[in-house]
Design a protein that fits this description.
Layout (H helix, E strand, L loop, with lengths): L15 E5 L2 H4 L12 H8 L16 H14 L4 E5 L2 H4 L9 H16 L3 E7 L5 H4 L7 H18 L5 E6 L2 H8 L11 H25 L4 E7 L3 E3 L4 H23 L5 H9 L10 H7 L4 E5 L4 E4 L18 E2 L7 E2 L4 E2 L3 H13 L5 E5 L4 E2 L14 H19 L4 E7 L13 E2 L3 E4 L5 E4 L1 H12 L3
Parallel strand pairs: 1-2, 1-14, 2-3, 3-4, 4-5, 5-7, 6-8, 7-12, 12-14
Antiparallel strand pairs: 8-9, 10-11, 13-15, 16-17
The structure holds 6-O-phosphono-beta-D-galactopyranose (BGP).
Length: 467
């Protein structure tokens, strides 16, 4: 390929370019072709008012029906890789036992269609969507469910592993812990620190069991996990602020990063949990299993940093225990915000994460598995041709890619960049409020797809191997 001298930030020729999505957020057809209910289907039945605009997960962006068109568009937009998730409840309507052949057919078609278009399928197994039948058995609180996950994982490897060479056990496993067991934004909406710790431990255990199953099958791909890493920046260098940031980092980053990459839990986190008498129940052999089954490849989702400071008040002794018992959040004056999502935009965060992975995690192969910007009312930016002029998204991507490029120059083993997300999708509680895609989805006109300016910009950037 001819090299363009205009390119200031050049990426390797084999860099993975693409986008990421998840089953519940894009497939739709939630009650068709034998899919079992998951916790989102169920929670929506119970409390539809919790979801933006009262819009639920039944009929999200219709990927189930329109994957062929969508994959053709991915190719047009320069993708050489695409990450999606399998819906556990579609493949196993009861979470284990009987397989739904229609799901096998669907995922086979998606994988084959991707490959036929020169796009590597990256497949994730768990993206927040516990089958309801297993939630009724305790969800991640239950060891039975951990074993069901291992069964589901090894079934997926056997069915699809001849063609899928990049596997991920979980996407952002801290989020179901936070949402379901601490902060009430996922079902089962509890605020229970002990259960949160147990769920976190079982998630890690399930990941290790899936990795073990993968290796036992002797398949020739790579397996990893996708973590949302949020660098914890202290307000100042005061020892109390530094301590606050160390604790936040232990809770939200190292809790999953250390066992996934090193096979061990951070000693300071273990000590802290012991000091508040909230260690999880660990059975004989669990820690050895986790130690023996670490990842090959790390997916990094990055949206925002976490800024913290020392607590300014003594916690209410009657209040439920939460991580914020140990630190306060800090709003840095002058920070740049995405006002629609309420998240700070701090491009250098992605560089700091990558350098940390290089220096403290043996420079394990990694890639940016999600990064993106959700914007409300994007129809404001429609031009006369009907295209959304999302220059803000292009700027957002460029700003982060510059930092990825800097990390690459400094020897970080970073292999690719995926935008969240390919086409506008259903954002859990935010439903269709904020739009993230390269491609817009017009809900009012049969989910019509229209490429945004950023989609074409991306294609050109990939062709030039940079910008
Ligand atoms: C990540 C999730 C995605 C996606 C994204 C954007 O945490 O992996 O599923 O939703 O964040 O967040 P949101 O949709 O809540 O705006």
């Amino acid at each position: 390929m001819k090299q363009d001298s205009q390119v200031q930030y050049r990426f390797p020729a084999d860099f993975w370019w693409g986008s990421a999505a998840s089953a519940t957020q894009t497939e739709g057809a939630a009650d068709r072709d034998g899919k079992g209910k998951n916790i989102w289907d169920y929670w929506y039945e119970l409390e539809p008012h919790r979801f933006h605009g009262g819009v639920g997960p039944a009929d999200t962006s219709k990927f189930y029906d329109r994957y062929e068109e969508d994959i053709r568009l991915m190719k047009e937009l320069g993708h050489n890789s695409f990450r999606f998730s399998i819906s556990w409840a579609r493949l196993f309507p009861q979470g284990h036992g009987e397989i739904n052949e229609k799901a096998v057919h669907f995922y086979n078609k998606v994988i084959d269609q991707l490959l036929a278009n020169g796009i590597q399928p990256f497949v994730n197994l768990y993206h927040f969507d516990m089958p309801l039948a297993l939630q009724e058995k305790g969800g991640w609180e239950s060891r039975f469910v951990v074993d069901c996950f291992a069964e589901y994982a090894s079934t997926a490897f056997r069915l699809f592993g001849d063609r899928v060479k990049k596997w991920f056990t979980h996407n952002e496993p801290i989020v179901p812990v936070e949402g379901g067991y601490l902060y009430n934004f996922h079902y089962p909406n509890l605020c229970d620190f002990q259960k949160a710790v147990q769920v976190g431990f079982h998630t890690i255990l399930s990941s290790a069991k899936a990795i073990k199953a993968y290796r036992e099958l002797g398949q020739d791909g790579q397996i990893g996990i996708i973590l949302n890493l949020t660098p914890s920046y202290p307000r100042s260098n005061h020892p109390a602020d530094l301590e606050a940031s160390r604790i936040a980092d232990a809770f939200f980053n190292r809790s999953f990063l250390d066992p996934s990459v090193k096979g061990t839990f951070p000693p300071d986190l273990v000590e802290l949990l012991r000091s508040v008498n909230h260690l999880p129940i660990i059975e004989e052999g669990d820690l050895e299993l986790i130690k023996a089954n670490t990842i090959d490849l790390l997916g990094i989702n990055y949206y925002q940093p976490r800024r913290v400071k020392a607590r300014e008040s003594v916690p209410n002794p009657q209040a439920p225990l939460l991580p914020e018992h140990f630190f306060d959040f800090y709003e840095m004056p002058g920070r740049k915000m995405n006002p629609y999502r309420g998240w700070e935009i701090y491009e250098k965060g992605i560089y700091d994460i990558l350098i940390n992975v290089k220096e403290n995690y043996d420079n394990i192969p990694c890639y940016i598995s999600e990064n993106g910007m959700g914007v409300e009312h994007e129809e404001r930016f429609l031009d006369e041709q009907g295209m959304i002029q999302d220059d803000y998204r292009i700027d957002f991507i460029k700003g982060h890619l510059k930092e990825v490029h800097r990390a690459l120059q400094e020897g970080v083993n970073v292999k690719g960049y995926h935008l969240w997300t390919f086409m506008d999708n259903w954002s859990w509680l935010n439903a269709y409020k904020n739009r993230y895609g390269f491609v817009s989805v017009d809900l009012a006109s049969d989910a019509k797809r229209t490429v945004k300016k950023s989609g074409y910009w991306f294609k050109e950037m990939v062709d030039k191997q940079g910008f």
